[in-house]
Design brief:
The chain is of the alpha+beta class and about 240 residues long. The chain has eight helices and five strands, in the order αββαβαααααββα.
């Protein structure tokens, strides 16, 4: 009985710890809101994007020749919609090993809880691994808008240890990674979310801002695979 009461209490307390720790960070790194555009936007450079490596959150084959790099934040409703589309893409294209999805953080200052959610997600990954990160990401997107006090519960639901995650957040270690990703994204022309970069060994093939529908991604992925000789004929 005591154990049953103790666990929810720990989750609530660690949720409050996470909220308090990140509140300070958010206030120190606040920027004016970034506008979201609906039209396609071609990245200005192909050589400034951070290369995909084992530190990234990858769903699918890490060595896939085509990588869909998504910049998003967990408070973005368009990103939640797009999350479902990208899961469908990976379900259909992932088994071939040709396409992988890379998630990168781009918390908008106009979303008050976005940085808090991003840092919590990074600490989930750091303490419990990449698979748990993806579970946590799905939970956050499915439960928008997120209350600060719910984070501990969602961390636990994803399979991570809320106390370890709270301690990680309070150490501010992952905050540098998040802000570095956002800075690099801005350098390649990201100015709204969800922002997608489709990357192959030949460089950036296309980039756009929008929660693009499945048919749009399917069309362009097939064209890129034919163009790069990955498949002989589009499906």
């Amino acid at each position: 009985m005591k154990k049953e009461i103790f666990l929810p209490a720990v989750i609530i307390i660690t949720g409050l710890m996470i909220a308090t720790a990140v509140y300070i960070i958010t206030s120190e790194n606040y920027r004016p809101p970034i506008s979201r555009q609906s039209q396609n936007h071609q990245a200005e450079t192909t050589d400034q994007i951070l290369p995909v490596n084992i530190a990234d959150h990858i769903l699918g084959n890490p060595n896939a020749p085509i990588k869909i790099i998504e910049y998003a934040d967990f408070s973005c409703s368009y990103c939640a919609q797009y999350q479902q589309t990208l899961h469908r893409i990976i379900n259909d294209y992932g088994p071939t090993g040709n396409v992988a999805w890379v998630f990168r953080e781009f918390p908008l200052p106009s979303h008050p809880n976005a940085l808090q959610e991003a840092q919590t997600a990074q600490c989930v990954a750091k303490t419990a691994g990449n698979d748990t990160f993806w579970k946590f990401a799905d939970i956050l997107f499915a439960n928008q808008p997120i209350k600060e006090t719910q984070l501990g519960e969602y961390v636990h639901r994803a399979g991570a240890n809320p106390t370890k995650v709270a301690l990680c957040v309070s150490d501010n270690i992952t905050n540098k990674r998040i802000l570095a990703q956002r800075k690099n994204a801005e350098a390649i022309g990201v100015n709204g979310i969800p922002y997608t970069v489709i990357l192959t060994p030949k460089g950036i093939q296309m980039s756009f801002i929008s929660a693009a529908p499945y048919s749009y991604l399917q069309q362009h992925l097939n064209a890129i695979m034919v163009q790069d000789g990955i498949i002989s004929k589009a499906k």
